[in-house]
Amino acid sequence: MIYFMSMLGNEYIKIGYTAQDINKRKSALQTGNPYEIEILFSIDGTLKQEKEIHRSLREAFERVKVFNNPVNEWYPGKNSMIKMFMSNVRTFGLTYALQNLNSIFNWDIAVEKDEVFTIRHLEKALRKHGLSRTQAKTMISQNKVELMAGTYNKYIGGVIDEMVRNQS
Predict the structure, then answer these.
(1) Domain locations in the chain?
(2) What are the tens digits of pLDDT across the range 15-70?
(3) Which of these, 40, 77, 144, 166, is most buried using a 10 Å CB contact count?
(4) Which among 107, 21, 90, 6 has a CA at the least distance from the CA of 56?
(5) What global pTM score does this model have?
(6) More confident site: 140 or 168
(7) Is 24 exposed, middle or buried (0-12, 13-18, 19+ CB in 10 A)?
(8) Three-state SS for 62?
(9) CB 76 within 8 A of CB 9
């Protein structure tokens, strides 16, 4: 079984595999942990699938250059990539969620002329809209999934304008 657990009000999300009862796994994780762990949901799955989840998430985090990439199986729960992945798992199942994650963050997507996306260019564009460097970096970090999806779908300009409107 593949499980999703949270800590600190969904600040951190644990994705893991267990062959035992999920409550026993929660108890094992809770031992020595001062923060209450909550079971969010679980799905049928294998250890191989759990490893595929972590590989896909690691590659996606590297692709979008998320600041403070997770170094273990506890992910930033407020990150939109994790939220999207969990929603897809719940709604459409693990296979679809992994395919979706891998297609959005595919390294092999052909980049057409004038479609090069860099964090530095985005930061400059946001600063031209009046945001400070800190505000721009925070906004970029919080919205990387939408930005990459926007780039993937060639709508980055509209995504930037929408982000700035929402910030105001």
Answers:
(1) 2-104, 119-167
(2) 999 999 999 999 999 998 899 999 999 999 999 999 999 988 887 777 666 555 55
(3) 144
(4) 107
(5) 0.63
(6) 140
(7) exposed
(8) helix
(9) no
